[in-house]
Structures are given as C-alpha cells and as structure tokens.
Amino acid sequence: MEILSLLGDGFAIALTPQNLLLAVVGCFLGTLMGALPGLGPANGVAILIPIAFSLGLDPTGSLILLVSVYYGAMYGGRISSILLNIPGDEPAMMTCLDGYPMAQQGKAGEALSLSGVASFVGAFVATCGLVILAPQLVKIALLFGPAEYFVLFTVAFATLGGISSTNQAKSAFAAALGLGIAMIGSDSQTGSQRFTFDHIHLYDGIDFLIAIVGLFALSEVFIFLEHHRGGAVGSAGVTKVGRIMPDFGMIKRCIPSMARGTGLGFFSGVLPGAGASLGSFLAYSLEKQAVDRDGKTFGKGDPRGVAAPEAGNNAASGGALVPMLALGVPGSGTTAVLLAVLLQLNITPGPLLFQKSPDIVWGLIASLFLANFILLAMNIPLVGIFTRVLMVPTRILMPIVAMISFVGIYSITGSTFDVMLMVGFGVAGWVLRKLDVSLVPVILGILLGNQMEVNLRRAMTISDGDWFILVGSPLAIILWLIAIAGFVLPMLMGRRMKKRMEAARNEEEFVGD
Amino acid sequence: MSDRIFGGFGLALAIFYIWAASTIKDSFMVDVVGPRAFPYIVGTIVALCSLYFILRPDDEPEWPHMREFAEIVFAAVVMLIYSWALPEFGFLISTVFATAYLTWRLGTQPLWSLVTGVGTSVSIYVVFHLILGLALAKGPLGF
Question: Any idea which UniProt keywords this protein has (chain A) (predicted)?
Fold first, then answer.
C-alpha cells in the first residue's frame, strides 16, 4: 500500500504539463534514434545528456526526458529489423528473424503493431517488477558497508563482459582503463593532484560526459566513415507497411509467447552482465524450443517469433533499471549511460536515493509507466512516420549526429580543450572497437572509479589498514563468489554462447548491409 | 599481431601510469591507504591484461586499407580543427565547413555538401540556440 501511495505521488509529479510534454518529446526522439541503425539507446541518450543539462531543466524533468528516450529507443529498434532486416540496435537483432519474413509476406504492418504491443507488455510488466523488486533490493543494500560496496563494484566489472564475452582479459583491460581515467584530477579524500602533470584543464578530472559522447557517438561516426556507408538505410526498398491496425486474433495467440518472453527478459535484465541483448536472445530461442521444436514455422515469419524477443528485449530494459536504481550499479551499456545522467544531475543512485528523495525515484518510475502508454499510442498509428525517417541517407544523418555531439559538449564545458578531448576519445573508441575491446566497461570505470576507490579507502580506514575486511562478512564473501563466477564462466562457455548467438543470426541471409 | 602491438602499448601505458602514480605527492591530509594504492592496483591490472594480449593474441581484426585509414585520420583532424575554430570563427561558419567535409566524405556531391553544411548548421543554430537557448560558440561576428 505504501508503494501505491508513493507511486501516486510520482504520478502527480510526472503528470504536470511540462513533464508530460518532455515525456512525449523523449519518446518521439527515442523511437527515432532506436529506429536508425547506428544510433542505439546508449549513444542516443549520451548525446542528449549534455543538451538536457544545458537546457537548465530541473532534475526530474531531465530524467523524464532521458528515460523516455531510453524506453523509446528500445521500442524503435524493431522498426528497421522488421522492415529492412537490419537491427536498429543490438537487442533488436532477434526480431529480424521472424519480423523480416513477415514483412516480405506483406504483413509488415501486422508485425510492427504486434511487436509494438509486445514491447508494451514487456516494458509494462517489467516496470511493475521494478516497483516491487527495487524497494526489496534497497532493504538488502542498506546492509552494505563500504567493504561490501567495493566488492559490489567489483561484481559489476567482473560480470559486465557478459556471458557471451570471448576474451575476459579485454573486458578487464577496458574496466581498468576506465578506472585509471577516473583517477585523473584531485583526489577526493586528501586533495592531492593525481595524473594532472600540472595541466590546469585536468585539475577537475575528465568529465565523464566527454568520454561517453566521444566513445559512443563519435566512434560510431568514424565507423560509418570507414565503411563509406553513406546511403539511405531504407534504399534497399522499404517494404510496404500494409495495414497498421493490429490483428487482435494474432495478438491473442501470441499472449503466452509474450508472457514467457517478458519473464525471461526481466530476469536477464536484473541479473548483472546479461542485459537486453541476452534477454531477447533467450526469449527467442526458448520460445522456439517451446512451441516450434522442429523449426517448421520459426524463421519463416511466425508472429510468435516476433512477440517473444520484443517482449524480452523491453522487459530486460526495465529490469536493468532495478540494480541501477537500487544499488547504483548498472548492468549494461545503456543503463551505464543512465547512471551518467543521474550523476550529472548530482543524484547518487542507491538505497539512500530511495530514502532521501523519493520524489525523484517515484517520479521517474511513474514517468516510465507514462512513457509506455505514450509509446504504445505513438508506435502503432504513427509507425509510418518513423519508417520514413529510414529514408534519410546516413551521409546527412551522421554529420548531424557528430555536430550535435559537439554542440552538447561545447555548451556544457565551453572549452576547446574538452571538445578536442572528445575527438580523442572518439578515435580511441574506434581503435578499441576494432580490437574487440568493449567500451561499456571503460565508461563504467570512469563513472564508478571514484566511488569504488572511496569505498575501498573507507573500508580500510574502518579496519585500520587490514585488507582482510574485504572478505570480512558473509555478504562480502557471497559477492566475491558472484564476481569470480561471473568472470570465469564466460571463459568456459563464452565462445559457445557467442557462436550460438551468431548462428541464430546467420540462419537467415542478411539482405542489407 | 595487432593484439601484440596493443599489448605492448598497454604495457607501456601501465608502466607510465604506475610511475606517474608513484610521483603523487601526499597532502597534509592522510588516510590509511593514501592516494597511490588504488592507482597501483589499476595499473597492475592493465599490465597483466597487456601481458596476456602479448602472450595469447586474438585473431587479427579486419583493419581498413590505407585509404579508409587515411579517411579516419583526416576526419579526426578536421574535427580537431573544428574544435579549434569554434571560438575563432563562431558556430555557424565552422559548422558549415565541418558538416560539408563529413557529408562529402560519406558520399555527397561536393556542391550539395556545402548546401547540406549550410542547412545543418542553420537548423542546429535555430533549434538549439534560438529556440532552446543553448549557448553556442560565438565568433567575432556574434554567431
């Protein structure tokens, strides 16, 4: 009951005209970014953070805007999957498998509206799950001392590579690189200058926004330049959308698929190191196991093969918010970017946030519910607008993305040095991507580095220099075991998982790209 | 081979990092661990991972050919020049040229690139500066 009244307060905040408008704008922009290949939820949110910040919106307002973009991008990813067989973002990969064949059979409209409904179901249930689960997790998190927090951060880094990671050394390298960058600037505990080399621009450290926009958005521009991919994504001939209104019979038949997809997706979202891509992958492959063991209809345009992964993908993106809000530890790239949003607004997520500023937490959660309804309304009748965006050639689009990145960073820092630094991060991001080093741990390292160190030092102060405090409580030991398991398991089965994910992808011939 | 070079670079970075950490001065405030311990740990992890890359490199990634490589380098240089030009010439003028360059390299006809550049620059200026009120770089001409 207490939760309901808190949620009611949240809705009172989210339903003010200004916040409602922000939610609509966010949903629209998010769907747009999700639909465009090359602009996923992570870099979409990344380039908008500095802009939302320099607009001078209040914290709740900017949060509402940016989480609407996040949810919107998750919805939007399916549009190009279905119409063009090119996933708009990574989690939408599995939607290609049955969505595109449906479009080829002239049922693009049905596929789009069905996946819209599935996205809604997944995201809506996951948001309910967030409401129930996050306060429980907060209760556990309140037991954490500095030592446990330090280990918790270690868990986040150890599991971030994910189950499909093939080279854990590269994940560890990326995390350490991020942590190393976070150390630059004056030490928060003693005030000593570290790694600044008497360079005045470095005294305050490197703003994580510069790193995020550079690594995510600009490196994407470089990738496009490298491949000379300047044409319209939609030039391969956007399939006719056909009837847009959903076929209720079909939706009814897909309800069990959506339910299974949602459950699986939510769990992989909550678990560290899984995220939306794994959520949709699991939802699709288990759905196939459950209803189509012989492979007769899946991959040939089975609506259930669209409903399950879309529900899974969106449920996972809701589930991923649970650890991010309750513990302050994101489990995926996109939630890492959302953590950046919170830190930029001077909000430290974690158990204290729920106690100290319930208005922000519940306003945020209420706006997630709201965003869901807006997205459902926006995605079914208006899907035509978004498909038209796919006709804009990337040679025009990518420079715009680059310029908006510059505008954002320049408007918050006003410094040429910082803008140049962003270009540097862009180039570094391109090189790291080429070498198959994931960028998410780098970002997370930059975001969490100082907190991780502060917790270590606090723990050591408590124990008076005894390092054994890090394994000094059952909770800490459990967390260490999770960290070790999360780091070692992918070494044993990472290659196999990756092969299976790629095999599932390649069963179909890719038309585009 | 790429991974080995990367590992060598990482190792050099780690050594430099640990050396730089050892030069951190203590301030008048002290705690048990001090400002150097965590950087040492981080530097060690970087070093260990780099050694692993040298000993067990992954398959060679697909490096672009010289031409594409030059493409990236030139684009980065243009972006750096753009960063420098922003306060010198103002947002509108700098952005026209930066956008024109990028869209040209992505395959727009030269003349159309300039048109796209002007279009992008003016639209961003209108939307972000005039409507949303963001502070953009001001040149000597005031825009």
Answer: Membrane, Transmembrane, Transmembrane helix
pLDDT in tens, A66-101: 989 988 888 888 888 888 887 777 778 888 888 888
Rounded to 5 degrees, what angle do the CA atoms A451, A454, A460 make? 145
**Position A507 pLDDT exceeds 60:** no
* Residue in chain A lying closest to B135 (CA): A411
Taking the CB of residue A199, how many other CB atoms lie within 10 A of it?
11
- In this complex, the residue of B32, B42, B50 whose CB is nearest that of residue A461 is B32
CA distances from B6 to A445, B48, B52, B61 (A): 20, 13, 11, 12
pLDDT, tens digit (0-9, with 9 covering 90-100), for A332-344 = 778 888 888 888 8
Q: How far is Cα A7 from Cα A9, in angstroms, rounded to an integer? A: 5
A 106-135: CB under 8 A from B? none
A-chain CB neighbours of B95 within 8 Å are: 403, 406
What is the residue type of A322?
V
Q: How confident is the model at residue A165 (pLDDT cuts 50, 70, 90)?
A: low
Tokens of B57: 């490199």
Rounded mean pLDDT, B62-90 = 89
Residue among B6, B38, B83 minimizing CB distance to A420: B83
Residue of B42, B62, B103 with shortest CB distance to A396? B103
Residues paired with residue A186 on neighbouring β-strands, in sequence order: A193
pTM: 0.88
Task: Determine how many CB atoms are found less than 10 A away from the CB of residue A52.
Answer: 23
Burial A448-479 (b: 16+ CB within 10 A, else e): bbbbbbbbbbbbbeebeeeeebbebbebbeeb
Task: Quick: pLDDT tens for A256-277.
Answer: 888 898 998 898 888 876 667 7
Strands A193-194 and A185-186: antiparallel
The verdict on ipTM greater than 0.85 is yes
Residue of A nearest to B85 (CA): A416
Question: CB–CB of A420 and B84 under 8 A?
Answer: yes
Distance from CA of B9 to the nearest CA of A (A): 12
- Contact (CB<8Å) A173/B105: no
Contact A460 B32 (CB under 8 A): yes
* Cα A17 to Cα A54: distance, rounded to the nearest angstrom: 21
Nearest residue, CB atoms, B25 vs list A192, A227, A460: A192
- pLDDT > 70? residue A380: yes
User: Taking Cα atoms as reference points, which of B25, B18, B19 lies closest to residue B41?
Assistant: B18
**Helix, strand, coil shares of chain A as percentages rounded to 5?**
75, 0, 25
Q: Where does A332-473 have alpha helices with state H?
A: 333-344, 351-356, 358-379, 383-389, 394-413, 416-434, 440-463
**Which chain A residues are within 8 Å of B63, Cβ to Cβ?**
434
Residue ranges of domains in chain A:
1-226+247-510
Distance from CA of B142 to the nearest CA of A (A): 15
Beta bridge partners of A393: A232
- Is A508 a residue whose pLDDT tops 80? no
Closest residue to A190, CB basis, from B31, B49, B103: B31
User: How high is the pLDDT of residue A164?
Assistant: 58
Phi/psi of residue A186, nearest 5 degrees: -85, 140
